[in-house]
Specification:
Elements lengths: L6 E5 L6 E6 L14 E4 L9 H12 E2 L2 E2 L6 E4 L4 H24 L1
Parallel strand pairs: 2-3, 3-6
Antiparallel strand pairs: 1-2, 4-5
Length: about 110
Protein backbone atom coordinates (compact mmCIF):
# COMPACT_ATOMS: atom_id res chain seq x y z
CA UNK A 1 0.00 0.00 0.00
CA UNK A 2 1.34 3.41 -0.89
CA UNK A 3 0.44 6.69 0.74
CA UNK A 4 -0.94 7.30 4.20
CA UNK A 5 -3.38 4.87 5.78
CA UNK A 6 -7.09 5.54 5.42
CA UNK A 7 -9.19 6.35 8.46
CA UNK A 8 -12.96 5.71 8.53
CA UNK A 9 -15.65 6.25 11.12
CA UNK A 10 -19.21 5.03 11.50
CA UNK A 11 -21.97 5.55 14.08
CA UNK A 12 -22.33 2.71 16.58
CA UNK A 13 -25.34 3.90 18.55
CA UNK A 14 -28.30 6.24 18.38
CA UNK A 15 -26.25 8.71 20.49
CA UNK A 16 -23.96 9.22 17.47
CA UNK A 17 -20.88 7.88 19.23
CA UNK A 18 -18.10 7.00 16.82
CA UNK A 19 -15.86 3.99 16.43
CA UNK A 20 -12.77 4.51 14.33
CA UNK A 21 -10.03 2.43 12.83
CA UNK A 22 -6.65 2.98 11.20
CA UNK A 23 -5.31 0.71 8.47
CA UNK A 24 -1.61 -0.10 8.31
CA UNK A 25 -0.24 2.80 10.39
CA UNK A 26 3.49 3.54 10.20
CA UNK A 27 3.55 6.17 12.97
CA UNK A 28 1.64 6.97 16.15
CA UNK A 29 0.18 10.16 14.69
CA UNK A 30 -1.83 8.14 12.17
CA UNK A 31 -3.95 6.56 14.92
CA UNK A 32 -6.71 8.77 16.42
CA UNK A 33 -6.59 9.79 20.07
CA UNK A 34 -10.27 10.17 20.96
CA UNK A 35 -12.69 8.95 23.57
CA UNK A 36 -13.96 6.25 21.20
CA UNK A 37 -12.84 2.75 20.34
CA UNK A 38 -10.12 2.72 17.67
CA UNK A 39 -9.26 -0.50 15.83
CA UNK A 40 -5.64 -0.43 14.66
CA UNK A 41 -5.07 -2.95 11.83
CA UNK A 42 -1.40 -3.64 11.27
CA UNK A 43 -0.13 -4.48 7.78
CA UNK A 44 0.27 -8.15 6.81
CA UNK A 45 4.07 -7.75 6.80
CA UNK A 46 4.03 -6.29 10.34
CA UNK A 47 4.00 -9.56 12.28
CA UNK A 48 3.81 -9.63 16.06
CA UNK A 49 7.07 -11.58 16.18
CA UNK A 50 8.96 -8.68 14.57
CA UNK A 51 10.74 -6.34 17.02
CA UNK A 52 9.94 -3.31 14.82
CA UNK A 53 6.22 -4.10 15.01
CA UNK A 54 6.29 -4.42 18.79
CA UNK A 55 8.17 -1.12 19.01
CA UNK A 56 5.57 0.61 16.79
CA UNK A 57 2.69 -0.80 18.87
CA UNK A 58 4.32 0.44 22.07
CA UNK A 59 4.86 3.86 20.46
CA UNK A 60 1.22 4.05 19.32
CA UNK A 61 0.01 3.20 22.84
CA UNK A 62 2.29 5.80 24.49
CA UNK A 63 2.17 8.64 21.96
CA UNK A 64 -0.02 10.45 19.46
CA UNK A 65 2.47 12.18 17.22
CA UNK A 66 4.68 14.40 19.40
CA UNK A 67 2.38 14.41 22.45
CA UNK A 68 1.33 11.80 25.00
CA UNK A 69 -1.70 9.67 24.13
CA UNK A 70 -4.70 10.43 26.36
CA UNK A 71 -7.06 7.55 25.48
CA UNK A 72 -4.71 4.55 25.63
CA UNK A 73 -7.44 2.11 26.66
CA UNK A 74 -9.50 2.97 23.55
CA UNK A 75 -7.05 1.14 21.26
CA UNK A 76 -7.67 -2.37 19.95
CA UNK A 77 -4.97 -3.94 17.78
CA UNK A 78 -5.30 -6.54 15.00
CA UNK A 79 -1.81 -7.92 14.36
CA UNK A 80 -0.87 -11.03 12.35
CA UNK A 81 1.10 -13.71 14.22
CA UNK A 82 3.41 -14.03 11.24
CA UNK A 83 3.36 -12.94 7.63
CA UNK A 84 3.71 -16.55 6.49
CA UNK A 85 0.59 -17.72 8.34
CA UNK A 86 -1.51 -14.89 6.94
CA UNK A 87 -0.27 -15.37 3.38
CA UNK A 88 -0.87 -19.14 3.56
CA UNK A 89 -4.43 -18.59 4.80
CA UNK A 90 -5.04 -16.14 1.94
CA UNK A 91 -3.68 -18.64 -0.60
CA UNK A 92 -5.91 -21.38 0.80
CA UNK A 93 -9.00 -19.15 0.71
CA UNK A 94 -8.29 -18.08 -2.88
CA UNK A 95 -7.69 -21.70 -3.94
CA UNK A 96 -11.03 -22.84 -2.46
CA UNK A 97 -12.75 -19.90 -4.13
CA UNK A 98 -11.20 -20.88 -7.47
CA UNK A 99 -12.29 -24.52 -7.00
CA UNK A 100 -15.84 -23.33 -6.27
CA UNK A 101 -15.86 -21.14 -9.38
CA UNK A 102 -14.53 -24.00 -11.53
CA UNK A 103 -17.20 -26.37 -10.18
CA UNK A 104 -19.95 -23.84 -10.99
CA UNK A 105 -18.66 -23.42 -14.54
CA UNK A 106 -18.43 -27.21 -15.06
CA UNK A 107 -21.99 -27.77 -13.80
Amino acid sequence: MTGPPVLWHFPISHYNEKARWALFPTSSGQVPDRAALALVVMAPDQALAEPATRKLIEQVVREHGASARTFKSALLFAVPDSAGTLLEAARTALAWEDIGTSAEIAA
